[in-house]
Design goal:
By secondary structure, this protein is mainly α. It has helices spanning 8-14, 19-22, 27-49, 52-68, 78-99, 105-109, 119-129, 131-144, 147-158, 163-170, 174-194.
């Protein structure tokens, strides 16, 4: 599932052409593109959603979209390739915050089933993302939220309630519950990025 072994991203950087550009007619090049970025993309999501499994699902949809859009890539360097991929990732993160769920449209179009992560993979992602080290920062960021956002985030993220349950506990509409969680997570994400 996740890349392992030598520095695949380092090898990507030594390539003459971006892997995604070569992937248009070459499955091995897309596999190289995936292997070169999967860890970084999963860590990017994990540090923002604080959940390795959700992060992996977001990464899966991001790579499915990258595969679908690979012919649209117009860059000429590995740096542009990375920027292109992380623009897709950022878009997926924004959708997740707004909807409160992972969009799976590209995965469904490609008929890709995302396998469940093993406990060892979850632990590895959490270690790569430095979640243990971020725990005090996360706790501080949560405390800084307005009370209504803090409680909404606690119910959704910590207690893992769905939005209907969050709305019922807060005595607000589901739309208001989603908005509070989204605003709270965005604010926390800004604090985590600064850290």
């Amino acid at each position: 599932m996740l890349a392992a072994g030598p520095d695949v991203l380092g090898r990507l950087g030594r390539q003459k052409r971006p892997a995604i550009e070569r992937a248009c007619g070459n499955a091995d090049a897309f596999a190289e593109f995936y292997a070169g970025y999967i860890d970084r993309v999963v860590v990017y999501f994990t540090r923002r959603v604080l959940n390795a499994e959700v992060a992996f699902e977001l990464a899966a949809e991001t790579f499915a979209l990258a595969f679908e859009r690979r012919a649209q890539f117009r860059g000429a360097s590995v740096e542009e390739e990375q920027g292109w991929l992380f623009a897709i990732a950022h878009s997926q993160l924004t959708r997740y915050w707004r909807r409160g769920s992972v969009e799976r449209a590209a995965l469904e179009r490609l008929a890709v089933d995302v396998p469940a992560m093993t406990d060892a993979e979850i632990e590895r992602v959490e270690q790569l993302a430095g979640l243990r080290e971020l725990a005090p920062v996360v706790a501080g960021a949560l405390e800084e939220l307005p009370a209504d956002q803090r409680r909404a985030v606690e119910l959704r993220v910590i207690e893992e309630l769905d939005y209907a349950e969050v709305a019922a506990k807060l005595a607000v509409s589901e739309q208001v519950a989603r908005a509070r969680v989204s605003r709270g997570l965005r604010a926390m994400s800004r604090v985590l990025e600064a850290a």
